Task: structure prediction
Amino acid sequence: MTSTALGGTLTLADDLTLTRMGYGAMQLAGPGVFGPPRDRDQAVAVLREAVSLGITHIDTSDFYGPVVVNEIIREALHPYPADLRIVTKVGARRGDDGSWNPSQDPADLTAQVHENLEHLGLDALDVVNLRLGVVEGTTEESLAEPFGALAELQRQGLIRHLGVSGVSSAQLTEAQTIAPVVTVQNLYNLAARQDDDLVDRCAAENIAFAPFFPLGGFSPLQSKTLTEVAARLGASPQQVALAWLLQRSATTVLIPGTSSVAHLRENIAAASLELPADAVTELDAITARGEAG
Result:
């Protein structure tokens, strides 16, 4: 499959080029992103299929599972293809009950980076995102101390590039005073448009914007307009929602997750779906009407 069929590529640095259609590995863990998958062989197969179809951008974290997903990635793909870039994130720990607990102390962030390196079988991580804020919003707290800790690990050669997740525009600006930022991961989709200005800013500054929950997450997108546009185009609503994101900005990168090979192929097909202008106009109006949720 050509890179064009994967939404093209995005070059963020001399050693960092990503296919804009990537793969998010979160769903390879068990229910609630906790524990082992129901079918480990299928999880391995999904990863290998993603790479065989040309995807060079895999998103993961050691707190998926925890540990489980990174170990499956290593089992499936190590030694890694030369063009594969693995983007991971730190800033949280999982409780024994599966809870997500912020953990941004510099010493623990250092430990988390080393754990990602160990479980992925790498000497250096391509990109590490600092996870801040809450799932459905951002805060305005300073990120200088935790981001500075990651910048120090970058100077040591353990991390090649840095990103941020769950951030405001002001926090992005603060991070950039400490070290270059190549990626932003925030909640954003057809119905959740609170970061429109940040999406535009990332495009202007050649920063990859990776929307998490691109299909609504825990509350899947439901929209009569989306369904009607999809039917007219001969595509699924999910494919249309992903295609809209790719067309929304030249630096948007997608990391939809799945534990199914068939679903993976459906997601990838969205990158080849060209939305006509009238469809984009209809879809853009969904949020204003409060129709999707």
About this structure: The chain has a mean pLDDT of 93.
